[in-house]
Amino acid sequence: MAKLWSGRFDGDTDALVDELNASIGFDKRLYKEDIAGSIAHAKMLAEREIIPQSDLELIIPALLAICGDIESGAFEFRQSDEDIHMAIEAELTRRVGNAGKRLHTARSRNDQVALDFRLYLKNEIGAILGQLCRLLDTLCTVAQDNLDAVMPAYTHLQRAQPSTLAHYMMAYANMLRRDVTRLEDCRERMDLSPLGSGALAGTTYPIDREATARELGFEGVTENSLDGVSDRDYAIELLAALSILMTHLSRFSEEIILWCSWEFKFIELSDRYSTGSSIMPQKKNPDVAELVRGKTGRVYGSLFALLTVMKALPLAYNKDMQEDKEQVFDAIDTVKKCLPVFGAMLATMTVRRDNMRRAAAEGFINATDCADYLVKKGLPFRDAYTITGGLVSLCAAENLTLETLELARYREKSELFAADVYDAISLETCLSERRTPGGPAPAEVARQIESVREFLEARQSS
Question: What is this structure's pTM?
Answer without folding.
Answer: 0.93
